[in-house]
Amino acid sequence: MPRYLEEIDPAISAEDNIKNMCFTKGAMLVDEFNRIFFDIFLRKSETYKKIVSLLSTGDKEFNEICDLLNMKYSGRILKYLEELQLAGFVRRDYTWQLKTCKDAKLSKFRLSDNYLRFFLKYIDKNKTKIERNSFDFKSLAALPGWNTIIALQFENLILNNRSYLWNILDIKPSDILSENPFFQHKTVRQLGCQIDYLIQTRFDSLYVCEIKFSKHKIPYSVIEEVQQKIDRLKRPKGMSCKPVLVHVNGVNEEVEESNYFTALIDFSKALDGDYST
Hints:
Blueprint: H1 2-6, H2 14-22, H3 28-41, H4 45-55, H5 62-69, H6 75-86, E1 90-96, E2 103-111, H7 114-123, H8 127-131, H9 146-159, H10 162-168, E3 176-184, E4 193-201, E5 205-211, H11 221-232, E6 240-247, H12 253-258, E7 263-266, H13 268-271
Parallel strand pairs: 5-6, 6-7
Antiparallel strand pairs: 1-2, 3-4, 4-5
Helix pairs in contact: 3-4, 7-9
């Protein structure tokens, strides 16, 4: 990371820096992925690349990964995933039983390295144009599918800095029984549900955190969206839910006036170094 920071020119804009570092022939971040993967994984680097490419579009369960790779469910694929975890590129997020706080068998694998996602979605696909210095980079917003990708990157940023949320919500680590992205499968007894980030405390409280990145202010419809997730969440009686919205570009006035959310966390303040609410 310090080496990458040395490449940034503070005299030019962020997007010009990205153009120079990511979309210019011979630039460091154009070839960094291949150097990293070859150095770590050697001859099997292509297999690992296929796995992280699948995860670049979103979290996936083990069976989904095997199906998409058209490979048998085996310890071999699991070993590849474990090695990607050890290298710091992938994280395995376990869901858990709310009644017992014990980890469930269900888990999803998440690409935890934001550079890899950006490389696979934009640099790698335009490598030949970059080598010919013919890639026309106008802006990040002009990149195909950018809104979807930046939403995944933002969610990943939050999950990699979850202790910041604890601080804002005034939750002591010693009071947390379990925390992670949470999901439950649809069965005859329950509906399917997926929560961006859930914190369970020893006070029988669940902090249901919705992570939203939008270039516009978050609309009032987010309340109905979050409430639907809470309604589907199978939890013991007496366990309270505290909805939390993490955003970066503000919320509509109606959202603030509703007082629905326990906390509205503007993560742009964290990026600016302001840790107050």
